[in-house]
Amino acid sequence: VFQLSVPLNFLGSVYRDMKQSLIDMESLFRLQRFSVRVKSKPNAPPLQLIHGGEITFDHVTFGYHPDRPILKDCSFTIPAGEKVAIVGPSGSGKSTILRLVFRFYDVTSGRILIDGQDIRDVDLDSLRRSIGVVPQDTPLFNETIMENLRYGKLTASDDEVNEVLYRVRLNELVKDLPDGVNTMVGERGLMISGGEKQRLAMGRLLLKDAPITFFDEATSALDTHTEQALLRTIHDLFREGGKTNVSIAHRLRTIADAEKIIVLKDGKVLEEGDHYSLLADEHSLYKELWDIQENLDIEEHLKDLEEEKK
Ligand code: ATP
């Protein structure tokens, strides 16, 4: 038995390693959609996060096809340690920004700096290791809650995982389950909501402890107002210790408390500021988007009331 358990354990850990890379790859492929030929320069030094991961877009122009630019002379700064949101109409280039920071593609002109280093000059692996992503659709495995979380850091102790579980407020969910953290989730196990799934992904990322995190907000995650409020507070965990936290947001309510909101339109930065300063401008696109969403919320609310009456 002893002899057998060694190779089996070994296989188990190889399998887990494979799955962990799979998660990273999955998020990558979702962001990427196409294969690319970006490589490190020979002997490129690793990225040095000397200021906590400040990201600067300096006159960036980029298009997936040369004749169709998506970002046009785009300049902005995402300061380290602040909660920053990127918003804008569908197709304005929000996810493209994330793909460029990951260096799935190189800019056509201009440059992207992290803590002053042009990302084309640093080792690609070190760049990607520094960035964690919560993708729109989180891959969950048919395994226990504990195992699903641990993909963030395979060496995490049970205590570490439990701590994270608490921080993303999944302890409430787990408390009432007969098998607790050892409950299976996914197709053959417990079905969890879109929001809980994203919180699980956030837990993974907390374990991974990357200096820069991006949230590509899933609309399905925002099924309820409580869920929105929860996600907002959890966001704040990611900037502890001066880390960089960027949200690509579809619902403005989840990011209204960000210190900096960057409004994109047609590949350009149209407006920048916090919620109140952007709303104060009667003619801002932000105000227009906000009013549309608030009206939709009211309509939804009224519909819910109608349903209740029936
Ligand atoms: P949404 O809010 O709908 O997610 P977005 O602001 O994130 O939109 P992007 O995904 O950055 O927008 O896309 C910007 C534009 O680039 C779109 O017109 C899109 O069709 C185009 N695009 C995105 N990915 C590719 C690609 N791999 N190849 C070619 N065009 C692409």
TrEMBL record:
It is found in: Mitochondrion inner membrane. Residues 55-291 form the ABC transporter domain. It comes from the Eukaryota. Belongs to the ABC transporter superfamily. ABCB family. Heavy Metal importer (TC 3.A.1.210) subfamily. Homodimer. Performs an essential function in the generation of cytoplasmic iron-sulfur proteins by mediating the ATP-dependent export of Fe/S cluster precursors synthesized by NFS1 and other mitochondrial proteins. Hydrolyzes ATP. Binds glutathione and may function by transporting a glutathione-conjugated iron-sulfur compound. This is Iron-sulfur clusters transporter ATM1, mitochondrial. The lineage of its organism: Eukaryota, Fungi, Dikarya, Ascomycota, Saccharomycotina. The chain holds residues 417 to 726 of 731 of the full protein.
